[in-house]
Amino acid sequence: MVMQLRDYQQEAVNAIFQYYEAGNAGNPIISAATGAGKSLIIGEFIKRVLQRYPGEKIIMGTHVADLISQNYQKIIAQWPEAPVGIYSAGLGKKQPWTAIVCGGVQSMYKKAHQLGFRAFLLVDECQLLSPHDDGMYMKLINELKKANPYLKVIGFSATPWRQKGGSLVEQENAIFTDIIYEISLGYLVKRGYLTSLISKSSLIQADLSSVKTIGGEYNAKQAEAALDRDELTKAAISEIEVLAVERKHFLFFCSGVNHAFHVRDELRARGWEADVITGETPQLERTQMLNKFRNSKTRYALVNNAVLTTGTDLPNVDCLIFLRGTKSASLYIQICGRGARPVYAAGYDLSTDAGRLAAIAAGAKPNCLVLDYAGNIERFGAVDLIEMPRARKKKGEDDEDSQPTSPPQKICPKCREPIFISTMECKCGYIFPAPEKPKHDESASNAAIMSTEIQAQIHKISHVVYKVHMGPSGIPSLRVQYYDNFGFIACEYICFSHAGYARQKAESWARARMQGAAFVGINAYQVLEVEKGANEDEVKRAYRSLAKKYHPDLNPNDAAAEEKFKELNTANEILNDKRKRADLDFKLKKIGSMPKTTDEAYDMSSYFTQPLAVHIKKSGQNTQIIGYDF
Question: Cβ distance 471 to 391 under 8 Å?
Fold first, then answer.
């Protein structure tokens, strides 16, 4: 049975074709949350390319055998007669002659000459592609370009950024040029394609304060030493047995191989059925464990160390356990995504949003519980509010993006539910004491794993500041900063000069502000009730007629008439001054015309309708604008 694409998957495929049909020669990215079905998007794109251009040859490259196999299977499911092969030492196959090659970068980069001429290289989990020439992907790309200098590289990722370089399209020597379509976790949850995540803040936390950072991540040996402690393991599992008593399918993420085995041994000692998967687990044994997990009807735990973070499809996971810390937002998102796959109850219409949401609510997994013993949730905040980090500034440059944010939640010490920070009485009955002035080293606790657990804050806007922001990519964006009477609230970047999906979002943003766009100053034509092309005599006659009507001598003690008379004088002055009239004509031309570039948008920013209020959600260091009141 050929798999049918969802509407957003079809739109993502269309976006790639539209990108190239518009004359773009870059390397685009499809940003799709974990669980969005990237394999289906990839498979459909390949199918349409080869059906339209039968002689083309394509490589689908990634870094792990599971993803290679998964993408291969999805291509066959969509297109049973597809000319597809595998090039992967881990899977025991090397078939470089096929029109479609699903391969591992580790196997291909030294043998790229065997693959010949290729029109496209599709990179799954493209956040792993380093732009440095000594990386495996770049060596593969450089070799493929010897056969085809016009090779097109298309990336797919749930997290299109790197920990150090920021966005994949803004980093130095970036391979990718545009993010042309985005599918967010929150969007998929709202439509019933994914299940929601919930969290409980644990009273048990590992102390990682003395663990050093290497290359933007915790030192592996020190982190394992901090977390692989018998008393911590026992205490955490004791709490898990209470908080997750009704859960059945547990996925543990540990800080090292030894730690993983120690956790497994403690689980087994308590009567749990538990296994360990590490990088050294043989492929056959690993497959058997994963199948056992999928088919288990009783409580079962898979404990892993840095293995099941990407490319593993385990829909029945209903409890994720963080027994490892990370400073990588990308890894945090990938791990959380393991628990978002839905399990639908039978008997519901899965072709509608309402039907899917009802099927999830009635199913065996209405949500997935996330328990964190390493401070990750409080470090990063809600997983669906994490924004793509911008490239770091060089030493000496001002970092205008580093605006401080405050977590909007606190944890009830009785039921440990995250609640809005201003709440004085929890729904469990606990009453918070009156707040004291915080000490220098105190900070509010934030344990919301998804933004649905966070109440939106509404800020009335006093003024908006517009700036042209130039990122490392060299493509300017419009930085929009919102302020209330107390100061800075939030900012957003509107990409008028970009292509594809970013441009579409910018146009949608602008349309909302150009309907009845605010005209700053006096529209002299309207005041004098003349047409825009009125000549000097027509302006003079109109002014004399209206000035006589509203003259203060003829309207004593009439404040409105006096104000109108002043406005008539100003309008007459504008239309009789060539420079002022030309400036007015320019303003009127701008209102209602969609800006073509960021510079044009900045020029007309004073005419945009200013929102009365913005709705935001804050989590950890992340702030997201979710709506406006006009």
Answer: yes
How many C-beta neighbours within 10 Å does residue 237 have? Answer: 20
302 in Cβ contact with 250 (< 8 Å): yes
Among residues 163, 135, 137, the alpha carbon closest in space to that of 332 is found at 163
Q: Locate tokens 């009567």: which residue?
A: 271
Q: Which helix (H) or strand (E) is 419 found in, with range? A: strand 418-420
Q: Can you list the alpha helix ranges (DSSP code H) found in 350-451?
A: 353-362, 376-380
Task: Identify the H or E element spanning 541.
Answer: helix 536-550
Measure the CA–CA gap between 20 and 26, rounded to whole angstroms. 8
**Distance of alpha carbon 482 from alpha carbon 489, whole angstroms:** 6
Beta-carbon contacts of 408 under 8 Å, excluding residues fewer than 6 positions away, are: 420, 421, 444, 446, 454, 455, 457, 617, 618, 619
- Alpha-carbon 345 to chain mean position: 29
Residue with tokens 């005599």: 537
* Token representation of residue 348: 């519901």
pLDDT digits (tens, 9 = 90+) for 142-197: 999 999 999 999 999 988 887 666 788 877 788 898 889 999 888 999 999 999 99
C-alpha closest to that of 109 among 306, 128, 29: 128
Q: Any idea what DSSP says for residue 498?
A: S
Q: CA-to-CA distance for 374 and 302, rounded, in angstroms?
A: 19
Q: How many DSSP H helices and E strands does the chain contain?
A: 19, 26
- Alpha helices of 296-341 — where are they, by DSSP H? 329-337
Backbone angles phi, psi at 123, to 5 degrees: -115, 110
Q: What is the pLDDT of residue 445?
A: 31
How far is Cα of residue 253 from the mean position of the Cα atoms in its chain? Answer: 23
Residues whose CB is less than 8 angstroms from the CB of residue 209 and which lie 6 or more positions away in sequence, other chains included: none
Q: Strand 120-124 relative to strand 152-157: parallel, antiparallel, unpaired?
A: parallel
**Which pLDDT score, from 0 to 100, does residue 4 have?**
84
Residues contacting 520, CB < 8 A, separation 6+: 587, 606, 607
Nearest to 26 by CA among 502, 500, 474: 500
Q: Is 572 buried (19+), middle (13-18) or exposed (0-12) by CB count in 10 A?
A: buried
**Which H or E run includes 71?**
helix 65-78
| pLDDT tens digits, one per residue of 477-523 | 899 999 887 778 888 989 888 877 778 888 888 888 876 544 555 67
DSSP letters for 594-626: PPSSHHHHHHTGGGSPPPSEEEEEEETTEEEEE
CA distance 458 to 460: 7
Return the percentage of the chain with pLDDT > 90, whole number.
Answer: 40
Angstrom distances, CA of residue 476 to CA of 208, 522, 598: 39, 31, 6
Backbone angles phi, psi at 176, to 5 degrees: -90, 145
Residue 447 has pLDDT above 80, yes or no: no
Phi and psi for 154 in degrees, rounded to 5? -120, 130
CB of 526 closer than 8 Å to CB of 588: no
Bridge-based pairing of strands 100-104 and 58-62 is parallel
- 304 pLDDT band, cuts 50/70/90, is very high
CA angle 129, 130, 135 (to 5 degrees): 100
- In three-state form (DSSP H/G/I as H, E/B as E, the rest C), the secondary structure along 35-50 is CCCHHHHHHHHHHHHH
* Amino acid in position 197: L
Task: State which H helix or E strand residue 31 sits in.
Answer: strand 28-32
Residue 405 confidence (pLDDT) above 80: no
A 10 A CB-CB count for 307 gives 20
